Amino acid sequence: MPVQIRHATPDDLLVVTKLFRETIQHVSSNHYSPVQVAFWKSSTDDLPKWKKRIEDLYFIVAEKDSLIAGFAYLKDGNYFDGLFVHHEHQGDGIATLLANTIEHKVMDNGYDSIHSDVSITAKPFFEKRGYKVNEFQMKPFKGVTFESYIVSKTLV
User: Fold this and answer.
1) pLDDT tens digits, one per residue of 25-79
2) pLDDT at residue 1 tops 80
């Protein structure tokens, strides 16, 4: 069955946050320390914040065989704020479908560029899509420092 992209709803909250935690544990843990992984995963403890994200942002999910296999969300019209694909669906083209949908939404919003702050794990994916690294950063958050990259892309 083909992958379907749809808007997330508050009913997706627990599945989305579980997918987020599992993706970090199984995929991002290759690039981040156990302390960083634990801290990053704990951000799902704030369910009201995640619910607000789903309700207020352009937040989409990818369903494969009626199960959520990934999600992405856009903030402020052209800021690609998040992209996560379940560890069992890495390489299935789901991230590409989600990113394509986000980029089309940015153009529909009237912007000709998109920007993001991406993890070490996500950097190669974004670079393959034509994003340019503008800045490397060591971002402290509540005593834990994360390496990430500010990236941008001109949309045609």
Assistant:
1) 898 888 888 889 888 888 888 999 999 999 999 999 999 999 999 999 999 999 9
2) no
pTM of the model: 0.93
Are 17 and 44 contacting, i.e. CB atoms less than 8 angstroms apart?
yes
Give helix 13-26 / helix 34-41 axis angle, nearest 10°.
170
CATH of range 4-110; options 3.40.50.360, 3.30.420.40, 3.90.226.10, 3.40.630.30: 3.40.630.30
Give the span between the Cα atoms of 104 and 81, in whole angstroms. Answer: 15
What gap in Å lies between CA 145 and CA 138, rounded to an integer?
6
CA–CA distance, 14 with 22 (Å, rounded to integer): 12
